[in-house]
Amino acid sequence: MFSKETYIARRKKLAASVSGGILVFLGNNDSPANYPDNTYIFRQDSTFLYYFGLDLPHLAAVMDIDSGGEMIFGDDVDMDDIIWMGPQKSMAEQAAAVGVGKTYPFARLAAFVTDAAAKGRTVHYIPQYRADNMILFGEMLGISPRLVNDGASEEFIRAIVSQRLIKEPCEIAEIDRACDLGYAMHYTAMQLLKPGLLEQEVVGAMEGVVISGGYMTSFATILSQHGETLHNHVHDKVLTPGKLCVIDAGAEIASHYCSDFTRTLPVGGKFSQKQKEIYTIVSTANSFAAEMARPGITYREVHLAASRLMLQGLKNVGLVKGDIDEALALGVQGLFMPHGLGHNMGLDVHDMENLGENYVGYDPGQERSRQLGLGSLRMARRLVPGHVITDEPGIYFIPALIEQWKAEGKFADFINYQALEGYYDFGGIRLEDDILITPSGCRRLGSRRLPITVDEVEAAMAC
Ligand code: GLY
Ligand code: MN
């Protein structure tokens, strides 16, 4: 938790950017896995954490913009709780630690919100992603839980997004820590990725690093010798010499700030010549994007410039043909990289995605493309200092997609379908760093960059 002044200042800024009414924040509850007392690991809602800092289940908070009041709703523990959980601080003490003077039992929340709505006051809330909180809002507002998200407040969403997008120095220090833990996680994989082991054994060792040094992984680990499947969570294969293994994994530390790195490693420690050619195109695109990322440019422009560079590289190896600018405008690159260059990152690995991808990643007036690849770009905004984003270009050979485009004769003037047949068992390559936009450019987060060049990776894997 940060100092109480941090939370007070954040709420003051938020209050100044909303026109009136009440802001309602629901924290998360324990979520049962297979019976009520056997729960998934608790994860607090990130917006609740950002403004109120308390990392406990069954809390809510209200800011009354018209009166300036702030209150936390939550219950003090009883003797039964103390027997099972040990002594706990009172709600009043917990609230005081984040600068809030008024607390009420959780059961009072519903009456407070219902009364405000009945008086015609604006009840601002953000989209809900957990069923229990949708039901609670539905009850408080007298509407079906299914309709709750239709009433989410755009004014509130935009105010939160503009504040949380620009990371404070105390947040950047936490993200640097999360990246250092992510580094240790990936370095473990580099040393362990030996033929004969199961993919799952490497996943287990990597996740052990995070559990020992942090809170949990920032998302379900992706580790696969079928990297052409973008988010492959199946880890049941034996590591086979000569295969490429995509490892996309991140750490979430105790403060809940995240990291998200991807490296693609050759099982056995040595790239083949054919792998080196494609790998070098992607690693060059990764570095090129970091060189371009600076205040004033949009991340959409960086995505397109990195895509152009990769198309040129693919042309150099004979997989793409024709005019590169024309190919880029048509979206030929979507065949090879059907995802965006990156996303915002912070308290969530895809920061604030629960508030709506376009609110978070697009400036007002910026249109989202429908092209394959560019349409999946989660962060397109004009960059400003304090943005934390990922830089994750990739090249994938997805046989089903190639076959579909070939059958349709799609972009036949630009794609060498015959040469692509030699890549159907290649897999995919993605290389991801996390960057902070600074006043003069950007810097990679974490105190060390994971090995990325062919030589660096082979040397790290030989240790
Ligand atoms: N690293 C997973 C993702 O960005 O979706
Ligand atoms: Mn990512």
Instruction: Tell me roughly what share of residues is in helical segments.
Output: 25-40%
Number of strands: 17
User: Which architecture name of the largest domain does CATH use?
Assistant: Alpha-Beta Complex
In CATH, what is the homologous superfamily of the largest domain? Creatinase/methionine aminopeptidase superfamily
Description:
With 463 residues, the chain is α+β, with helices and mostly antiparallel strands. It folds into two domains: 4-164, 3-Layer(aba) Sandwich (Creatine Amidinohydrolase, Chain A, domain 1), CATH 3.40.350.10; 169-462, Alpha-Beta Complex (Creatine Amidinohydrolase), CATH 3.90.230.10. The protein is built from 16 helices and 17 strands. The strands form six sheets. A five-stranded mixed sheet has the order 6-5-4-1-7. Strands 9-10-12 form a three-stranded antiparallel sheet, with helices on one face. A three-stranded antiparallel sheet has the order 13-16-17. Helix 8 packs antiparallel against helix 9, helix 8 crosses helix 16 (454-462) and helix 11 (299-316) crosses helix 12 (324-330). The structure holds glycine and manganese (II) ion.
